[in-house]
Amino acid sequence: MFNFSYKNPVEVVFGKDQIAALSDLLPKGKKILMTYGGGSIKKNGVYDQVKKATADFDVIEFSGIEPNPEYETCKKAIDLAKNEKVDFILAVGGGSVVDASKFIAAGALFDGDAWDILEKATPFNKALPLGCVLTLPATGTEMNNNAVVSRREKGLKLSFCNNAVFPVFSIMDPQATFSLPTKQTVNGVVDAFVHVMEQYMTYDVNAPLQDRQAEAILKTLIEEGKKVLKNPNDYDTRANIMWAATHGLNKMIACGVPQDWATHAIGHELTAKFGLDHGQTLAVVMPALWQVQKEGKKTKLANYARRVLDVVEGDDDKAADIAIVKTEAFFNELGMKTKLSDYGIKKEDCFFIAPIFEQRGRKLGENGDITPEKIKQIFTFAQ
Questions:
Q1: Contact 31, 60 (CB under 8 A)
Q2: Which of 133, 152, 176 is the C-terminal boundary of a domain?
Q3: Does the structure show a pLDDT above 90 at 63?
């Protein structure tokens, strides 16, 4: 196991009707900027619950945050936060709203162009405090210090990580997810699943606790992901998915182990170019990447096959192959497509992505060995 340092200051308030706890969690006497996306929180009752809980607070609203939040939208919110001298940000929505709010929180106190946080990785050590009311389990952003923001005019989807943007609290009421469209539910399950894989599906460093924690999350997502399609209003199923997604990226399972994140890096480029949902890109890239990187990941693929997928094959090579096939089948069972051709995209249309990471000075994969040629091979398997 590698050396590691772990910190997570987020207070999680989980369960039925917990949105009412906002009145105790928000700072008294402070100006609050409430951020959210489209109209879904007004249709599912979350907006009304938040307004009731914040009736005694000075709250201004900013709506219109998109899936894959756009820099220009975030910039408007940053300007609003500065002009209104906001003290605290309350993000109400899914991962995109929370990610955008983290960027807004950082940008509101940033000296200079906030875009530099993303494109130039300019460091910062202060941000407005923020809390969140989560309505879509997927990204784990409610319990971590990561955020991803897009800038479509430049064809970029970039991320940053900074301890200053850990949420102060995150309210998680599974009832808020009952009305989610099937597509969003499936995207969330796939996103959480791949988060776990980015931290698990690498090579063995004798960290059995982290491995088995990861395997438990994966097995839970497989079981509950299938259940939720049959009964989307089952509270326990929704609760299990929500909590599993949070554990998928609160970085506990990342302690002391190698990480990959190439699937996400490549997937971000597909979203930026073709506008695919984040979950869709992950489902396309990951099985293909495993094919290309199978030799280095073989032991973990075989372990996953046996411990999570109940495969009894004794040969590691065959078990690894079965694991890839069964994972793709699981995504398909959820209704998630796994091929570029399913979206009308040709592999050659993606080859421009191959040299991008090398040009940026970034090495992909847990061993830094995913070359531009390998990226082309990944797209070929994904065709």
A1: yes
A2: 176
A3: yes
pLDDT, position 264: 98
Q: What are the structure tokens assigned to 307, written together?
A: 């411990």
The predicted model gives 93-107 an average pLDDT of: 98
Q: How far apart are CA 102 and CA 83, in angstroms?
A: 18
Identify whether residues 245 and 368 lie together within a single domain. yes
Over 90: is that where the pLDDT of 38 sits?
Answer: no
Kindly state the tokens that stand for 80: 């609003």
Please calculate the CA angle 295-191-89 and round it to the nearest 5 degrees. Answer: 135
Confidence band for 210, pLDDT divided at 50, 70 and 90? very high
| Residues 153 and 49 grouped into a single domain | yes
What mean pLDDT do residues 256-273 have?
97
Q: Are 259 and 199 in contact (CB under 8 A)?
A: yes
- pTM of the full structure: 0.96
Nearest residue to 245 via CA among 12, 50, 51 = 12
346 and 273 in contact (C-beta within 8 Å)?
no
- Residue count of the chain: 383
Tokens 């990342």 -> residue: 254
Which among 176, 194, 218 is the end of a domain?
Answer: 176
Mean pLDDT of 55-62: 98
Per the structure, the complete domain to which residue 107 belongs is given by: 11-176
Determine contact, residues 343/301, Cβ cutoff 8 Å: no
Q: Which residues pair with 32 in a beta bridge?
A: 59, 88
DSSP, collapsed to helix, strand or coil, labels residue 365 as: coil
Which tokens is 73 given? 């939208």
Per-chain mean pLDDT for the chain: 97
Beta carbons of 278 and 336 less than 8 angstroms apart = no
Do residues 214 and 253 touch, judged by C-beta distance below 8 A? Answer: yes
Residue 39 confidence class, pLDDT cut points 50, 70, 90: confident
pLDDT of 164 strictly over 90: yes
Within a domain: 2: no
Q: Are strands 146-151 and 156-161 parallel, antiparallel or unpaired?
A: antiparallel
* Residue type, position 56, single letter: D
